[in-house]
Design a protein that fits this description.
Largest sheet: 7 strands, mixed
Radius of gyration: 13 Å
Distance between the termini: 31 Å
Low-confidence stretches: none
Helix content: 25-40%
Mean pLDDT: 88
Strand content: 25-35%
Number of strands: 7
Structural class: alpha+beta
Number of helices: 3
Length: 129
């Protein structure tokens, strides 16, 4: 059973419905694992943190992708502050996962920061190069 995700608002809706991202008071990281056609095959919470930070190693994200045969990964995490602007730590983490995924033959297709009904998409902002 798979879902088709076509845009960051689709992901925001999914996360608010299934993980209550819009209500949480602590940062959480979820990974969506996709097949070669972009269909989401697996969704897993890979990290949970505190009000303004999270611990989630690239290994935590990549292990499920490798074990399930995923081709692509979409990361998403929430900012309970209500501001989806990425921190310098968010940018550095995205680069680490992007590089690690590439080494494993996987593609990080987006990293979305959710904050209520607002979001920041690294893909849309050109930050996955």
């Amino acid at each position: 059973d798979s879902m088709r995700i076509t845009s960051p608002p689709d992901i925001l809706d999914l996360l608010n419905r299934h993980f209550a991202f819009d209500l949480t008071t602590q940062e959480r990281m979820v990974a969506l694992y996709t097949d070669n056609k972009g269909n989401v095959r697996n969704v897993q919470q890979v990290g949970i943190g505190f009000a303004n930070g999270i611990v989630c190693r690239p290994r935590d994200v990549l292990t499920t992708a490798l074990l399930t045969g995923a081709i692509g990964i979409i990361l998403a995490h929430c900012h309970p502050s209500g501001d989806p602007t990425p921190s310098k730590e968010d940018k550095a983490y995205t680069k680490r996962v992007l590089d690690a995924a590439d080494l494993c033959g996987l593609k990080l297709t987006d990293h979305i920061i959710c904050a209520g009904n607002k979001y920041y998409s690294f893909y849309e902002q050109g930050g996955l190069k």
